[in-house]
């Protein structure tokens, strides 16, 4: 999509981190932005700093009626949304499946996958009807490859987002609508603090702390660039292929085995 023609971007989880990075990238390009977030205080603070081209709307992405209301409120102010970013999410809970607290599992899946699907349910038919626009779904590097123990519930949700995005892309392409799956590696944001704020669990699951070189603002720019190029996947970090290739190789080995046996 040529972003010079974009009229209104809507971003869930837009009051912080990667969502806010996307908001700033769109504002820089003159696109009015609605940020939707569960955190009313953060919405007020962020919009106050950025002027009249950005509006906040409170939304819990788990609530489908609230999605419909948020959409109506946003479009009454800025007109039809033509860039949708379903981005709100919480962090991994650090629990291995054998120790999994089912409530914590449900919360992660409800927000990180259910919340993304709810955004698609609220907006996709309008995009298809108008035959233009772009939808970005925030998955993760953990939505392309399984990593260390403790990320499992999060990975379940993020693999789901990857599948949703890939499927939606194939359905929307003939209708002139672009879809990208955003698969960030580690970026320093408020993910841990915000997860605790809404009652989620954050337990240490790894001693490994990657070098942080990519910022939320960088990711916002990568998203804008990927929309322009209608990229299927947006990978933010250079080391992602190593894990993906390892996973693909085990699938290939199974396929080769079947060919040979
Ligand atoms: N930061 C990373 O390293 C990283 C890596 C890969 C993927 N991600 C994904 O990026 C997305 C954004 O995360 P972030 O790192 O910017 O974190 P963040 O906490 O800074 O931003 C997430 C925003 O989502 C909001 N939110 C949480 N639950 C919500 C709900 N139920 N309804 C509406 N809003 C809700 C939070 O209030 C917050 O403003 C998430 O989906 C996350 O899983 C982040």
What does the model show?
It is a single chain. 49% of the residues lie in helices and 12% in strands. It is α/β, with parallel strands linked by helices and 261 residues long. The chain has one domain: 3-Layer(aba) Sandwich (Rossmann fold). The chain has a seven-stranded parallel β-sheet with strand order 3-2-1-4-5-6-7, sandwiched between helices. β4 (83-86), α4 (102-130) and β5 form a beta-alpha-beta unit. The radius of gyration is 18 Å and the shape is globular. The termini are far apart. Nicotinamide-adenine-dinucleotide is lined by residues 12-13, 15-19, 37-39, 42, 59-62, 87-90, 111-112, 115, 138, 140, 184, 186-187, 189-191, 194, 198.
Concise account of the structure shown:
With 261 residues, the chain is an alpha/beta fold. The chain contains eight helices and seven strands.
This entry's quaternary arrangement is single chain
Count of spatially separate domains? 1
Query: What is the overall pLDDT average?
Result: 95
Q: Can you identify the CATH superfamily? A: NAD(P)-binding Rossmann-like Domain
Distance between the termini: 46 Å
Reading the helices and strands in chain order gives EHEHEHEHEHEHHEH
Low-confidence stretches: none
Q: Could you say which small molecules are bound to this protein?
A: nicotinamide-adenine-dinucleotide
Tell me the number of strands.
7
Provide the helix percentage: 40-55%
Identify the strand order in the major beta sheet: 3-2-1-4-5-6-7
Q: What is the strand content?
A: 5-15%
User: Which fold name is given in CATH as the topology?
Assistant: Rossmann fold
CATH architecture: 3-Layer(aba) Sandwich
Global structural class: alpha/beta
Radius of gyration: 18 Å
> Tell me about the biggest sheet?
7 strands, parallel
Number of helices: 8
